[in-house]
Write a structure and sequence with these properties.
eight-stranded parallel beta sheet; eight-stranded antiparallel beta sheet; disordered N terminus; alpha+beta; 32% strand; globular; 17 helices
């Protein structure tokens, strides 16, 4: 925290526009995700596209020229070209809502085009015989030719020209125009999956149905190598290059394709050490060719580092310039010799302009501390931390549960300091040193299931004997104060350590905690049924009666879909309520708003007695084709943890990113300002709950978030889903009116809803009510206000049903109004609800006291948030801000409150009478 505070001293003197010798920062008040350059007669201006899809135009002096909010959904691309030949560029904005928007030079909408509901990924303009055509494409797997005024001329299905043997068609990842011999050429880059394959470059003469050439991109084709940025190097016309930036965990991949030679190769960065890439984390490379004497250099932005690479393999050594922040985008303005960067990924709101002809730009890049929202976030966090030192928990509050923190990044000195504040909370669960990536080499031939017997996680080294493995576990337990956590399995390979070895570890642990972690157990077939019955449940039985437990860290819709398939019936039943804890692998997911509903639902129903939360760097990714997950200030993680811990999450997986900044969370838990409720204390749950029965096969297929060749308009129209648009082709797309996320969580799109609003209270997805189950009745686990007040609806994810036996079926797009109305009416028994872009939770801490936690709901686009607290059954006597001890004004019906940018607010609401 000292490092952060020292930076803040600098930040406080920064104005809205920061001008250094080599860099100018333009404050926009938006989180700018994409930047481009537009020509306006003899000048150029900057175009930015915000997280919300607002398009802004600035001149280089930082003056706003215009803005257009468009649809409120994200733009997947921005392309500027003079479509009407008036000397001024128009702006093309392919949108996630399925529209292509065309704006004039003043930002006014000229026209829009929509073929279907599939998000459009890219657009360009191409000319033939002096006639301009607009071309666009995306997840509907077609190249669409439009007139200059937006009328459809023709569509070319990718299946009609694809050269891939493995795939019959592909999504259109990028469309761009290049010049060859004085004529326009259309270039299309294909994509099949967001996690592998480099795609193919197809070269078309304008309006022709077949490409005249294609170039399959080389590469390993594994582990997130798909191109996500596209730039053209035309500094030397006879040697045109296409520069593609790939994504990866700790691998910088840039491909250079020669247009004339139809060859391509990876850019050799000549890195000597892996450390040259910086800390591990998913990043997307952006690259541009910048003139350098009689040649050029590739400027490659990768996370928070800029790599300057000579094209000559025998050229000078690579130069690496490291900044304090990663940035959302980069483009070049050749006419002004500028590089333009999008906002800092930690919630920034600036456009940054680098003058690459100025020798000072490198040192300015290294010390860049953006003004605007980054400065505001850090200032607010500093102010909060200082006030937290004086906080004393109210005497009527009694923390009943402890938060177990896995892999916090804290050292022994910091762990001891937390214990001095509060010896019981948080509890730090440590990793076993020297274990990863080593696993036990045991004889799996005894396993009767072929998949279990033969599947291996190739990232692990099976080189430990049982004795060696146990010795490492024993040493970890001996060295830890509270316990250890480790990976027991990933995907189908849950057998990193044998059952006998793990049982010995559990027995040796005694009162200490051992947490085996299972990651990405998403399957719902006979093989996973064998795995659960022959390995997971026997181990669960051994864990019964100990302080140890599993953490099941699954992805996507697991906690609303796959968990209700046969393999997991014993988990859902409550037989192992003390053993199983739900957590998430949220990367690439589209349904974060629902994962919290599912995890809390199983906890509230009694299937589990704890639920968990997790942060890792790639949480901020909803589409690996556009991997922007390298936040250097993890404010988004801080707010997510605050909300989920305030909602009862007590097992926290934390990937350390910035220990100084994240320390405020551990202090909040230790000091008690972050109150951790039991399920009986929460009073912000809506009495309506949605019970999942026998998940429909189409619903289960919705877990395919990486496949992007599966869009079918007829299928979408014919199969309305209660929980839909969850696959990879709907990244960032609007949810339908009848979707659970729309009427329950308040989400409008499939993107990063880690901090959902749930303005009518948390609507749980749960197991069906069964008074004979080991878990008991839902209402018996909840606050007394819910007794005889809960209302149950049934769904298989596709349709609604009258009961758990599916006696009568109702269509999702018809019956949702009944469910929606019930949710709205359910607020009448609740003490209060909250309207506004915040995540919130209320807990009863004493008979006449409520704890209301409010969290800025912009996950990667934080802002000051004004909210309205509506009172229903609560008769309010007084509201106090627990951090400042200031009283909050209110009426009998409501209170209006502003939550600071990137922060949270903890309110004590004293009641005139008991609930």
């Amino acid at each position: 925290m000292k490092k952060i505070i020292s930076l803040l001293v600098i930040f406080l003197s920064i104005q809205s526009v920061l001008a250094a010798d080599g860099i100018k920062s333009i404050e926009t008040d938006y989180t700018i995700m994409k930047v481009r350059v537009t020509k306006y007669k003899n000048t150029t201006k900057i175009i930015g596209s915000s997280y919300e899809g607002t398009v802004v135009c600035y001149d280089y002096d930082g003056k706003l020229q215009w803005k257009n909010e468009l649809s409120g959904f994200m733009n997947n691309d921005i392309y500027c070209a003079d479509i009407d030949n008036d000397g001024k560029d128009e702006v093309l904005a392919p949108n996630a809502d399925g529209n292509l928007y065309c704006l004039d030079d003043d930002g006014k909408l000229l026209w829009k085009f929509k073929k279907n509901s599939a998000p459009i990924l890219s657009a360009t303009m191409v000319a033939k015989d002096k006639i301009n055509y607009v071309v666009c494409g995306g997840y509907d797997k077609n190249i669409h030719y439009l007139t200059a005024d937006g009328k459809l001329l023709k569509s070319i299905p990718s299946a009609s020209y694809s050269v891939e043997n493995k795939f019959k068609d592909h999504a259109i990842n990028y469309l761009r125009t290049i010049q060859q011999k004085g004529k326009d050429i259309l270039v299309a880059l294909s994509a099949f999956n967001t996690n592998y394959d480099q795609g193919v470059l197809y070269y078309f003469n304008p309006l022709e149905n077949k490409p005249y050439a294609s170039d399959k991109m080389n590469g390993k084709g594994k582990g997130g190598s798909c191109p996500g940025t596209f730039a053209v190097n035309d500094l030397f016309p006879a040697n045109t290059e296409i520069i593609l930036g790939g994504n990866g965990l700790n691998q910088l991949g840039v491909s250079i394709a020669s247009v004339e030679k139809l060859t391509n190769a990876k850019l050799d960065l000549k890195l000597k050490e892996k450390s040259d890439l910086g800390a591990v984390g998913y990043r997307l490379a952006s690259a541009e060719a910048i003139p350098d004497a009689n040649s050029f250099k590739y400027y490659v932005l990768f996370g928070n580092r800029m790599f300057l690479v000579s094209p000559d393999k025998n050229g000078e050594k690579i130069e690496i310039i490291e900044s304090n922040y990663a940035f959302n985008d980069m483009c070049k303005d050749a006419s002004t010799k500028k590089l333009i960067l999008g906002s800092a990924q930690s919630g920034g709101s600036c456009i940054h302009v680098i003058d690459y002809t100025n020798n000072n730009w490198k040192k300015d890049f290294e010390k860049l501390n953006p003004p605007g929202k980054i400065a505001k976030i850090l200032e607010n966090t500093k102010d909060f931390s200082l006030k937290l030192r004086k906080f004393k928990a109210p005497n009527w509050e009694n923390q009943k549960v402890a938060v177990k923190v896995l892999s916090s990044g804290l050292n022994r000195e910091e762990i001891d300091a937390l214990a001095r504040i509060n010896g019981k909370n948080p509890v730090i669960i440590e990793e076993v040193k020297k274990l990863y990536p080593h696993v036990e080499n045991w004889d799996r031939s005894i396993l009767d299931n072929k998949v279990s017997r033969e599947t291996r996680d190739d990232r692990k080294k099976a080189d430990l004997t049982s004795t060696e493995a146990f010795s490492l576990f024993k040493k970890g337990l001996d060295d830890s104060k509270s316990g250890i956590q480790y990976w027991q399995g990933h995907g189908r390979d849950v057998y990193f350590y044998s059952l006998s070895t793990v049982k010995k570890v559990i027995d040796y642990a005694g009162a200490k905690i051992v947490i085996p972690v299972f990651a990405e157990l998403e399957q719902h077939d006979k093989d996973i049924e064998w795995t659960t019955e022959n390995f997971i449940y026997p181990l669960a039985s051994h864990l019964q009666g100990t302080n140890s437990f599993f953490s099941i860290r699954n992805k996507n819709l697991f906690w609303q879909s796959s968990v209700y398939t046969p393999a997991w019936k014993r988990l859902v039943s409550g037989e192992f309520a003390n053993v199983f804890v739900s957590s998430m692998e949220e990367s690439n997911s589209k349904t974060m708003d629902m994962s919290i509903s599912g995890r809390m639902g199983l906890w509230a129903a009694g299937s589990m007695n704890q639920w968990g939360s997790r942060f890792t760097r790639d949480n901020a990714c909803y589409d690996r084709l556009r991997q922007l997950s390298y936040q250097k200030v993890p404010n988004h993680a801080l707010r997510m943890f605050v909300h989920q811990i305030a909602s009862g999450a007590t097992v926290v997986h934390n990937t350390s990113v910035n220990e100084d900044y994240q320390k405020v969370l551990w202090d909040m838990i230790a000091k008690g300002i972050l109150y951790v409720p039991t399920r009986e204390e929460i009073v912000s749950i809506n009495p309506v709950h949605l019970s999942i029965i026998d998940p429909d096969s189409l619903y289960l297929e919705g877990n395919h978030v990486k496949d992007i060749t599966i869009y079918d308009e007829n299928f979408e129209n014919e199969n309305p889903m209660v929980i839909g648009r969850t696959t990879g082709v709907f990244a960032g797309a609007p949810v339908t009116d009848w979707d659970f996320s729309s009427y329950a969580s308040g989400a409008k799109e499939r993107r990063l809803e880690f901090l959902p609003t749930y303005s009518n209270g948390m609507v749980l997805t749960t197991p069906p009510t069964d008074k004979n189950s080991k878990r008991g009745l839902l209402e018996n686990h909840l606050n007394p206000i819910y007794k005889n007040n809960v209302k149950e609806f049934f769904t298989d994810g596709r349709n609604y049903y009258s009961d758990a036996n599916k006696t009568k079926k109702y269509r999702a797009d018809e019956y949702y109004t009944t469910v929606k109305k019930a949710i709205e009416e359910g607020t009448k028994i609740m003490p209060l609800t909250v309207e506004g872009r915040v995540a919130w939770v209320a807990a009863q801490t004493a008979p006449t006291h409520l704890r209301l936690t409010l969290v800025d709901g912009g996950y990667v686009n934080p802002d000051d948030r004004m909210v309205t607290v509506n009172f229903h059954t609560a008769k309010v006597k007084k509201i106090v801000n627990l951090l400042t001890n200031e009283e909050v004004k209110f009426t009998a019906e409501k209170a209006t409150i502003t939550v600071p940018c990137g922060l949270f607010m903890f309110l004590d609401i004293e009641l005139k009478e008991k609930l």
